[in-house]
Structures are given as C-alpha cells and as structure tokens.
Design goal:
single chain, about 600 residues, Ubiquitin-like (UB roll), Fe-only Hydrogenase (Larger Subunit), Chain L, domain 3, five-stranded mixed beta sheet
C-alpha cells in the first residue's frame, strides 16, 4: 500500500496506508496506553484506554482499531483524551479487587501501572469490589474473576493461538464474566493447562497454581534431600523475570538456586539429551519396520511427546492419533524417574526422603507431574514444579543479588548436558537435536549442516518443513535408509498443531517425524515465563538459547559423557528393558 501523511500531536509524518492509529503513533514514537490490545492477538477495541482525538470527528477514536486516512490530524494527549482515559481507568478500578499486595501480578500489572501513570489517587466511582473468586481445582492455571477487566485477551489467546476455546464471556450486563462451559472450571473442560492466557492477561485474573510454600517447607526440613532440575528455557528467562536484560544466565541461575538451600542443583538438559537418545532410536526403529519390514501397522509420522500441553490437547482433540506419539516421557518426567532410582543409588539416599523439584517455563508441567502414570520409580517422579516467575520470586524473597552473584556449575551425575539439550527450549530445537543424533547413528557421519545448525527447522514461522536425503552408504544395519528422503515438520502453538493434525488425519501428510510444542516460540514462550511476552521478546530468548548451544563443547546428545555413563552403569542400552520401565509411557484418550 502507498504511504500517506498524517499529523500526530502537531508533527506530520508518513505512514503506510491501512495501518491503525495505534500503529502510526508507535512508529512516530508516541506512546498510547492499551489494555485489550496485544501484538499476538486480533484486535478487540473493547477497553477504550487507547482513545485519541481526531480533528473533525464528533467522538473520540479507538486507536487500536481505527485505520489512518490521508491528512488525518490526531491528538493523543489532549484534555478531552486525558479525561476520558482517567474515567475509563476509574470505572475499571471501581469493579476491581484492588488489594494489590496480595496479587501475584503486583508491580507487574498493566492496570496498576496505568493507574499510577494517570495519577489515580481517588475514585468517585468506587463501589463494593467483586468478591474474590479463586478457582482451586486446576493443577496448572488458576482464575480470580475479581481481578478481571473483561479485556478478552485470554479468550482470544485460547481461541486464536491455541485452538482450545474453553473460556468465553458468559452472562449479561453487570453479571458478565469469563468462564468455562457450565462453570465447570478449567479442570473440568478440555483446557491444555498451557498458561498462555496467563502470559497475556494484563492483570492478575489468571495465574499459576503455586507450590512455593511447600518447597520452602521441604528446604527447611533436615530429613528431606531436595533435588532440583532446571529446564533449558529457564536460563534465558530468569534474568528477565528479575528485571534484567534477556540473555544467558546459567551460572548465576545455578548459584542462586543453590543459595536457596537445594541439596543438588541439576539440569533438565541432561534428560533432554536422554530423550533424544531414546526418541531417536524409536524413530529409527519405526522407520525400519516401515521401510525394511514393510509393516503396515507402523504409525508414521512419529510425533514428539515432550510438551504436556500438546499431549493433553491431542488426548482431547485427536485421540485416534495417540499411537503416532513417541512413547518417550518428557525430559522433566524422565529426570524425575531417574532422581529416585539412579541418583538415589549414586548418592546412597532413600528415595522416600527425596523431594524432586523441577523449575519449568511451563504451567502444564504442573499438570503433567500429577498424571497417575508418572510414578515409574515407585514414587511420585516429580513432587513440585516451579515456573520461571516463581523461581524469581523465591530469589527475591531470599535477598539474593542475582546480577552480581558469582557463577557456579551444576552438580554431577545428572548435571552435564550438551547444546542439543539446550535448544530444546526453542521451537524446532527437539527436531534439530534429534536430527543431529539420528543422522550420525545411521550414517556414521555428522549431519551435513554448517556448524551442526539445522537452520531449516529454526525460526518463528508457525509451521516449518524440511527434508534431508540420506547418503547411499549407511552404517551397518541401516542400509534400508540409503537414499531415503526424511521429511520432517515443526509446529509451535496449538492452532498450528491443529493444522498439522488435520493433514495427518486426512492422510495428506507424508512426513516421517513431527515436532510439536504447545506454546508460541516453544518452551521459551511457555506459560510460566516472564510477563510480558511478544514476538520480539521471544526472538531475543531464542537468540540466547542458540548462543548457549554454539558456546558449548558438546553439541550432540549422544556425546554427553554423563549420558554414556548412565547407559553403561544403569540403563544398558536405548529402548532396553529398564529404559521402557522408567522412561516411556502411554497416553489417555479424553473427552473433547
């Protein structure tokens, strides 16, 4: 579209025809307050915080949904505009639970921030706030409608980004609220527990189910041996959660967690490497059955199973495709099973006295640990889950100076990982890690991409496809793959996952292997990551993850010396009896 001239606060500028007034003002460096607007979502225009004055218009314009027109003259902070915005804020606050110190989003609340910016100190509209209404049955995501401002960001997130659509505005007039079908609660509907609604809520109406208190109690119990694992995306999010720039913070993170009193600080990236070994051999086995034995009952494409939000989604929406899932548990659950078996033996500790904690970028991990099948060790594999945000709150509560703390390293046995484990945190990372290992196993050579970087599966596109043709000469036993073109796909965000599953269900997909992550951007955009989120923020986190991968000496999962020791001392071989017992599982068809 051609450019047109508009005047914003007395300054004429050129913008592309068709952009909104909000976008034009952002391009001109003029800030306009918003509450219902979010860069990931469709436009709603229902909060009215972005009102502006347009010369010649009878009423104020809603900047987020109003397109610019040639020679439009816009005033963003006139007396009329400021008065309207203050009125909007006061009306929102009049029906809002304003007990901010008790709110999870205190100091990181868009409504609170705008109230301070607009100097709202008295409110003539103040009435009796909504009564606190906390939903306490959901394992991962909680709701408190007394804090809801009806911006519908959560509704649009659930519908547009995730294709789940389990929350809607219900009721009329003053009784309207966001709820589920028949008010069943999130645990009574097909909620994926992904937490993406939390990340886009401007207030504290949505938040994670917290186990911080229980973890403090465990750390203070001298009878308990408290082991913690940290997921790859946490190390590129924790500094951000503490108000510092996004970047690699592994050493400071380890030191801070150790300072909280954990007995062992270990790395989920270790079991991410382990997942690649098991999953890679599983894929090779399925390809062998299909291509060598011609077995028509082999379920291809094989689909990754490490994202618990995705697993719950497919159990509800596409149960007929459950046999296509890898049988591998997620890295969190593999790790938990080994903590109370392998690590317990190594450390000489009674597993009954071990408390297994994981720090995850994900609220669905809180749901996953409660699945009844996740007790292969004879005990609950993972006892408690913290999000990145909750870890930040514990570090702040303990008074640890994260920015200046001396870096430390993970503990041994399950604390060593490779770059392949690190990139699990980004969309395409599981696929890239699997290809690095699987290609070398079947060919005897490194994958033919410069610096091991499988760039076709990287990036922020919703669905990515790639094809890798195997050489004519293969390693012994894998001749059936000679010359085969391996076709793969990667999807992030459940709406993109649904697009792929529709193709698979219709027999229109000729992929061999598919990676799916429930959250936009992969785990680095998880529901437990720092707020706010946006495409640009997720891009910076991805850059930090790939930078850490590139800086590591070991970048292939099968090269991890601690993984090699684990198989030599304990598991014996990939897909062996003990591996199946501890590291693999099955999935459950659920009602949609």
């Amino acid at each position: 579209m051609p450019n047109i001239s508009v005047t914003i606060n007395g300054i004429t500028t050129s913008v592309r025809e068709g952009v909104t007034v909000l976008e034009a003002c952002e391009l001109a460096g003029v800030e306009i307050p918003t509450l219902c607007y979010h860069p990931d979502l469709s436009l709603a225009g229902n909060c009215r915080m972005c009102l502006v004055e347009v010369e010649g218009w009878r009423t104020l314009a809603i900047a987020c949904v109003t397109p610019v027109t040639p020679n439009m003259v816009i005033h963003t902070h006139s007396k009329k505009v400021r008065k309207a915005r203050r009125t909007v804020l006061k009306l929102l606050l009049a029906n809002h639970n304003v007990n901010c110190p008790e709110c999870e989003r205190n100091r990181n609340c868009e409504l609170q921030e705008l109230s301070e910016k607009h100097n709202i100190t008295t409110n003539e509209y103040q009435t009796t706030p909504k009564p606190v209404s906390v939903e306490e049955v959901s394992p991962g995501v909680m709701r408190d409608n007394s804090r809801c401002i009806m911006c519908t960001r959560c509704v649009r997130t659930c519908e547009e980004l995730q294709s789940v659509a389990v929350i809607k505005p219900v009721g009329r007039s003053a009784e309207i609220k966001i709820s589920t079908f028949m008010d069943r609660g999130l645990d009574g509907v097909a909620c994926a527990q992904c937490g993406q609604c939390i990340n886009r809520c401007p207030t504290g109406a949505l938040f994670e189910t917290s186990e911080v208190r229980q973890i403090w109690e465990a750390l203070e119990d001298p009878e308990k041996f408290v082991v913690v694992q940290t997921a790859p995306a946490v190390r590129v999010g924790i500094a951000e959660a503490l108000g510092l720039p996004t970047g690699r913070s592994t050493g400071q993170m380890v030191a801070s967690i150790r300072g909280l009193g954990f007995d062992r600080v270990l790395d989920t990236d270790f079991s991410a490497d382990l997942t690649i070994i098991e999953e890679g051999h599983e894929l090779i086995g399925r390809l062998g059955q299909a291509l060598q034995a011609g077995d028509p009952n082999v379920h291809l494409p094989m689909i990754t199973s490490c994202s618990p939000g995705w697993i719950k989604f497919i159990e509800h929406k596409y149960p007929h495709l459950l046999s296509n899932l890898s049988t591998c548990k997620s890295p969190q659950q593999m790790f938990g099973a080994l903590v109370k078996t392998y690590l317990a033996e190594k450390e000489g500790i009674d597993p009954a006295n071990i408390i297994s904690v994981s720090i995850m970028p994900c609220t669905a991990k809180k749901y996953e640990k409660e699945r009844p099948e996740m007790n292969a060790s004879g005990y609950k594999d993972v006892d408690y889950v913290l999000t990145t945000r909750e870890l930040a709150s514990m570090i702040e509560e303990a008074g640890i100076d994260f920015e200046h703390i001396a870096e430390e390293k993970f503990d041994r046995w399950m604390g060593h990982s490779t770059g392949a484990g690190v990139i699990f945190g980004a969309t395409g990372g599981v696929m890239e890690a699997a290809l690095r290992t699987a290609y070398e196993v079947v060919t005897g050579h490194e994958i033919p991409f410069e610096g091991l970087n499988v760039t076709p599966v990287r990036g922020i596109e919703g669905i990515k496809e790639a094809a890798i043709t195997m050489p004519d000469r293969m390693a012994d036993g894998f001749e059936f793959l000679a010359g085969v073109t391996l076709k793969v796909a990667v999807a992030h965000g459940l709406s993109n996952a649904e697009r792929l599953m529709k193709k698979v269900s219709a027999g229109e997909a000729d992929y061999h292997f598919i990676e799916i992550m429930a959250c936009p951007g992969g785990c680095l955009g998880g529901g437990g990551q720092p707020i706010p989120t946006s495409p640009e923020i997720r891009r910076k986190r991805a850059e930090a993850i790939y930078a850490e991968d590139a800086a590591l000496h070991f970048r292939k999962s099968h090269a991890n010396p601690e993984i090699q020791l684990l198989y030599a001392e304990y598991l014996e071989k990939p897909l062996g009896h003990k591996s199946h017992e501890l590291l693999h599982t099955t999935y459950t068809p659920r009602k949609d």
